[in-house]
């Protein structure tokens, strides 16, 4: 029961691009689908515009984010950059303009060059209302589509024919592809994401070796920000993490909760390739998003049991801007989704050597362990206490003695211990998306129950107890009435009352 409701309220975000020559009616198809509007003299699109609409497939809500690109040649460089994140494309031509149909070949090549190879493409012949001006016979479109493995439909944004159907068809086929993936394939997907992620970091290392010099290679930068409505505790945790990540950049609160894809642009603006986003819901629940921009993946966690550095009166401290040792539980290598999570954590929490504002010291350990399907995050200071030694200094040469002492730091003459300094929190993975705040879902935690659901169940259980108690009271009352022992009557004087009889 819990899972059904949860399934319904999470979003399967699907990105579909609209491409084709200028003036074929892309923007109008979109406005017809999302707002049921048509504009006879609409302006040519500049760059890229977005609109969304959710549709229901198999009792799941599919949220389609549609990117309407400009058909004009001069925007080609900008628009092609948007193909990459898309899982579907509507390639539109105008049935009354044969040139727009001839250009379909070129558009298809653009897609093959820039988009994901698995993209689902649908050929759309628009403006079927222009019957007298038809220049491209339906069969030509159909044949071209079947030759190239595309699906095909003819539409009219003006008369609203087949517009919904076109979008629905492409979204359904995307959904079918995504949902038909078996677990093994999901694992393979995850492995591919993991591979591309780790490839990036190993490439960075190789460069260092070739040059021989220690140049800054690990170029991770993290954009850290929260949504509106975070509590003080969330804010403190955010500040703690920001102070621990000198390669991070904190930004002001982000206004929207539905348009998370805008974070991609924001990250690019600040030259960051990672995003750590705190999303507060209902003023109490905290979701943490870890995302690699611009190519994904994105991981959404539910964060619980937050303890900030100040709150627990943790006694230790570590240098601001120092680098951590990241320690991962062996379980991280046991499941594909955990491997992806580990890799993303390495990018976000691993302070790159020589990062701006970072110090060259390593004085704390961040521990990540897996228990109960959750990830427990702790932060410890590395505390070195020099042993007070009496008999070891027998050497006459004091100078060399000192040198030796120094060289033995962390070996025999110092006690190394770990002292927890916070922050500490627990993360439950919810979903992993392949893209950056978008794209197909490659992992979904079936055991996760949203905190709303938990609260509703609790309330219902409590209400259940109350209802049971009320029913019991009513029963008692009814029984008493049957015995003629109604509250009111009892108080009346009766000649047969024992108190009267034996007074
Ligand atoms: N008759 C008819 N006209 C349409 C239809 N769809 C769009 N138009 C008209 O075609 C013109 C161009 O439409 P747009 O939707 O702006 O074209 P576009 O493909 O977005 O063009 P760019 O943004 O320049 O790439 C407008 O004047 C629309 O009114 C249709 O189905 N039938
Ligand atoms: Mg347009």
TrEMBL record:
Pfam families for the chain: Brix, Ras
Residues in Brix domain copies: 220-438
Keyword annotations from UniProtKB, A to Z: GTP-binding, Lipoprotein, Membrane, Nucleotide-binding, Nucleus, Prenylation, Ribosome biogenesis
Spans annotated as Disordered: 388-409, 480-503
Gene3D superfamilies: P-loop containing nucleotide triphosphate hydrolases (3.40.50.300), Probable brix-domain ribosomal biogenesis protein (3.40.50.10480)
GO molecular function term, any single one: rRNA binding
Protein location: Golgi apparatus membrane; Nucleus, Nucleolus
Family annotation (InterPro entries): Brix, BRX1, P-loop_NTPase, Small_GTP-bd, Small_GTPase
SMART domains in the cross-refs: Brix, RAB, RAN, RAS, RHO
Bias (Basic and acidic residues) ranges: 488-503
Presence of keyword Transmembrane helix: no
GO CC entries: Golgi membrane; nucleolus
CDD domains: Rab11_like
Membrane topology: Lipid-anchor
GO biological process terms on file: endosomal transport; exocytosis; ribosomal large subunit assembly; rRNA processing
Main location: Golgi
SUPFAM superfamilies cross-referenced by the UniProt entry: Class II aaRS ABD-related (SSF52954), P-loop containing nucleoside triphosphate hydrolases (SSF52540)
PROSITE patterns from the UniProt entry: BRIX, RAB, RAS, RHO
Family: Belongs to the BRX1 family.
Name listed for the protein in its UniProt record: Ribosome biogenesis protein BRX1
Organism of this sequence: Dichotomopilus funicola
């Amino acid at each position: 029961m819990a899972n059904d409701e949860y399934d319904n309220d999470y979003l399967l975000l699907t990105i579909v691009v609209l491409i084709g020559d200028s003036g074929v009616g892309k923007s109008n198809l979109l406005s017809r689908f999302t707002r049921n509007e048509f504009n006879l003299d609409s302006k040519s699109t500049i760059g890229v515009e977005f609109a969304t609409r959710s549709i229901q497939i198999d009792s799941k809500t599919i949220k389609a984010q549609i990117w309407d690109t400009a058909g004009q040649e001069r925007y080609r460089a900008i628009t092609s950059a948007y193909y990459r994140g898309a899982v579907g494309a509507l390639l539109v031509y105008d049935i009354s303009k044969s040139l727009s149909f001839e250009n379909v070949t070129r558009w298809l090549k653009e897609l093959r060059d820039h988009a994901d190879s698995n993209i689902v493409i649908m050929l759309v012949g628009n403006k079927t209302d222009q019957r007298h001006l038809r220049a491209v016979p339906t069969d030509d479109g159909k044949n071209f589509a079947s030759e190239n493995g595309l699906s095909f439909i003819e539409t009219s944004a003006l008369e609203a024919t087949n517009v919904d159907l076109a979008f629905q068809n492409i979204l359904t086929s995307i959904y079918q592809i995504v949902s038909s993936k078996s677990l093994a394939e999901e694992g393979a997907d995850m492995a591919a994401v993991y591979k591309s992620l780790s490839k990036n970091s190993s490439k960075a290392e190789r460069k260092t070796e070739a040059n021989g010099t220690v140049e800054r290679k690990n170029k991770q930068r993290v954009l850290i920000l929260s949504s509106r409505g975070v509590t003080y505790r969330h804010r403190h945790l955010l500040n703690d993490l920001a102070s621990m990540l000198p390669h991070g950049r904190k930004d002001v609160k982000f206004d929207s909760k539905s348009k998370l894809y805008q974070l991609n642009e924001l990250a690019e603006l600040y030259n960051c390739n990672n995003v750590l986003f705190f999303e507060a819901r209902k003023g109490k629940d905290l979701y943490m998003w870890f995302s690699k921009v611009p190519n994904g993946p994105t991981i959404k966690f539910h964060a619980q049991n937050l303890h900030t550095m100040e709150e627990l009166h943790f006694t230790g401290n570590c240098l601001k801007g120092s680098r951590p040792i990241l320690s991962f539980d062996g379980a991280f290598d046991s499941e594909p989704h955990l491997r992806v999570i580990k890799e993303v954590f390495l990018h976000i929490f691993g302070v790159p050597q020589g990062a701006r504002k970072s110090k060259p010291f390593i004085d704390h350990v961040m521990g990540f362990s897996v228990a109960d399907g959750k990830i427990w995050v702790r932060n410890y200071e590395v505390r070195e206490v020099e042993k007070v030694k009496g008999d070891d200094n027998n050497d006459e040469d004091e100078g060399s003695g000192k040198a030796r002492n120094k060289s033995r730091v962390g070996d025999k003459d110092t006690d190394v211990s770990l002292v927890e300094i916070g922050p500490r929190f627990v993360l439950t993975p919810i979903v992993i998306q392949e893209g950056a705040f978008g794209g197909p879902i490659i992992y979904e935690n079936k055991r996760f129950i949203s905190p709303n659901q938990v609260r509703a169940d609790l309330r219902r259980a409590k209400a259940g107890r109350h209802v049971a108690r009320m029913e019991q009271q009513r029963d008692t009352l009814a029984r008493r009435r049957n015995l003629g022992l109604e509250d009111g009557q009892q108080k009346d004087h009766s000649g047969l009352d024992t108190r009267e009889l034996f007074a």
